[in-house]
Input
Amino acid sequence: MSAMNKIEVSHVTKSFSTPNGKKIAVNDVSFSLDEGTLSVISGENGSGKSVLMSIIAGLEKADSGTVQMYAKAGLIFQEADTQILGETPREDIAFGPKNQKKSTAEISAAVENALSEVGLEKKADDTARFLSGGEKRRLAVACMLSMNLPILIFDEPYANLDFTGVKQVNALIKKLKSEKKTIIILSHELEKCLALADRFIVLFRGNKVFDGTPKDGLEQNLEQWNIRNPLYERTSLQDLVW
Output
């Protein structure tokens, strides 16, 4: 597969100034992701996941290193409300194609296709702010799809979702994967998404500490990186506490 069909992250480093000096958020991280694959990037809060993905999505610049991609990436934020610009899902989804200077007919077609893709046709003219958490995440994805973005990055997609919301989001992610979208999920909730993945990467204090298959990842001592291994035994009430 040619380099144009990959996301190539090469020696990316990013630091921020703090009152106590510079803090390195991402330290010399490299990996390449094939087109059409689903990768889970995990790590505790502050591990550098969100900073790295902001760099990949073009929202921040690395201090050093490079990111090469074959297309733009769409970032679905943890707080889906922050991405809602329109009064209704239909209006919200139309913003992207309008900014791309598409014709009225093209915008209409892109909106209808995106609504159908994420299963929000019946909510198209509802008040967007009143959608459920899972529906808002699906709306954010629809906005990316309407712009024909083939790379989608989900930042903690299960935050504040109930069981139904998690199932809705995962059903959509499975559908997108079957359509050969390139997907990156940032999450520490491995029990909800690792089975979907082709690739598993762990960041710890800005460093890449594991990069391999999900199966091999579960054989690591994940707790040393402050991630709970989802393959713990739940056989009694006492097991249901962290």
Q: What stands out?
A: The radius of gyration is 19 Å. Residues 163-178 form the longest helix (16 residues).
